[in-house]
Amino acid sequence: MSMLEAAHENDVELEGACEGSLACSTCHVIVTDVNYYNKLEDPVDEENDMLDLAFGLTETSRLGCQVIASPELDGIRLALPAATRNFAVDGHVAKSH
Ligand code: FES
């Protein structure tokens, strides 16, 4: 289960606009302890691209839909950023390439 799914199952308001398809940054979370952050798999390029668009990016930011629960992560604490950017809602008009 991803942190995004865990949040939704526990009524935590983590948006997840693209439902985990790495096409948004609304599931941005901040790992509060760098030791836990270092246990995570490195983000793939697509995740880094989306994180670059995230509001309030930090050194320990990740996308919640990409952090998968595992025994090693037992006790991990995540903070939600003060805001998120959702281009679909905030008036961004997608252009074709
Ligand atoms: Fe969109 Fe995680 S829900 S990237």
UniProtKB/TrEMBL annotation:
Location of the 2Fe-2S ferredoxin-type domain: 1-84
Domain of life: Eukaryota
CDD domains cross-referenced by the UniProt entry: fer2
GO biological process: P450-containing electron transport chain
GO molecular function: 2 iron, 2 sulfur cluster binding; electron transfer activity; metal ion binding
Gene Ontology cellular-component terms listed: mitochondrion
Cofactor(s) demanded: [2Fe-2S] cluster
Keywords recorded for this protein, A-Z: 2Fe-2S, Iron, Iron-sulfur, Metal-binding
Keyword Iron-sulfur set for record: yes
Any Pfam family hit: Fer2
Name of the protein: 2Fe-2S ferredoxin-type domain-containing protein
